[in-house]
UniProtKB/TrEMBL annotation:
<dbReference type="GO" id="GO:0005507">
    <property type="term" value="F:copper ion binding"/>
</dbReference>
<keyword id="KW-0812">Transmembrane</keyword>
<dbReference type="GO" id="GO:0016491">
    <property type="term" value="F:oxidoreductase activity"/>
</dbReference>
<dbReference type="InterPro" id="IPR002429">
    <property type="entry name" value="CcO_II-like_C"/>
</dbReference>
<keyword id="KW-0496">Mitochondrion</keyword>
<comment type="similarity">
    <text>Belongs to the cytochrome c oxidase subunit 2 family.</text>
</comment>
<keyword id="KW-1133">Transmembrane helix</keyword>
<keyword id="KW-0460">Magnesium</keyword>
<keyword id="KW-0472">Membrane</keyword>
<keyword id="KW-1278">Translocase</keyword>
<feature type="domain" description="Cytochrome oxidase subunit II transmembrane region profile">
    <location>
        <begin position="1"/>
        <end position="42"/>
    </location>
</feature>
<dbReference type="Pfam" id="PF00116">
    <property type="entry name" value="COX2"/>
</dbReference>
<dbReference type="GO" id="GO:0042773">
    <property type="term" value="P:ATP synthesis coupled electron transport"/>
</dbReference>
<keyword id="KW-0813">Transport</keyword>
<keyword id="KW-0679">Respiratory chain</keyword>
<feature type="domain" description="Cytochrome oxidase subunit II copper A binding">
    <location>
        <begin position="43"/>
        <end position="166"/>
    </location>
</feature>
<keyword id="KW-0999">Mitochondrion inner membrane</keyword>
Length: 166
């Protein structure tokens, strides 16, 4: 049995399939442009190179005479009252507030991940590759992060501390 009174509505199906796709493209194009523009900092005040090692970070202020220092987690015996266990370091990265900062991140040995969640930053540190992230902090304070990659037995002992001063 064949019902001949039902007609195909292929034109209508084509319209209600293609029209939402066109609307999505029209919404996406300006958003992608804005997303790209917010990620790019053309003239940063500071460029800091961060190199991941097992089990510490090396920081280099490249714009100011190549100031280089290592940042190790503070052992429990050296903690002062108010310090955070497993999160405080011996040498903090000190930066001014409201200054655009470019972080260049790499690794010397294995995969690491330079992550400071309160600033919305997470960038992988890959040996042989230089990744970049930019940020501008708006509030002074001390911001904590850690290596969030499973890079070995002691990966959780690679804290990151940024001290942002007015």
């Amino acid at each position: 049995l064949t019902n001949t009174s039902i007609s195909d509505a292929q034109e209508m199906e084509t319209v209600w399939t293609i029209l939402p796709a066109i609307i999505l493209v029209l919404i996406a194009l300006p958003s992608l442009r804005i997303l790209y523009m917010t990620d790019e900092v053309n003239d940063p005040s500071f460029t800091i190179k961060s190199i991941g090692h097992q089990w510490y970070w090396t920081y280099e202020y490249t714009d100011y005479g190549g100031l280089i220092f290592n940042s190790y987690m503070l052992p429990p015996l050296f903690l002062e009252p108010g310090d955070l266990r497993l999160l405080d370091v011996d040498n903090r990265v000190v930066l001014p507030v409201e200054a655009p900062v470019r972080m260049m991140i790499t690794s010397q040995d294995v995969l690491h991940s330079w992550a400071v969640p309160t600033l919305g930053l997470k960038t992988d540190a890959i040996p042989g590759r230089l990744n970049q992230t930019t940020f501008t902090a708006t509030r002074p304070g001390v911001y904590y992060g850690q290596c969030s990659e499973i890079c070995g037995a002691n990966h959780s002992f690679m804290p990151i501390v940024l001290e942002l001063i007015p």
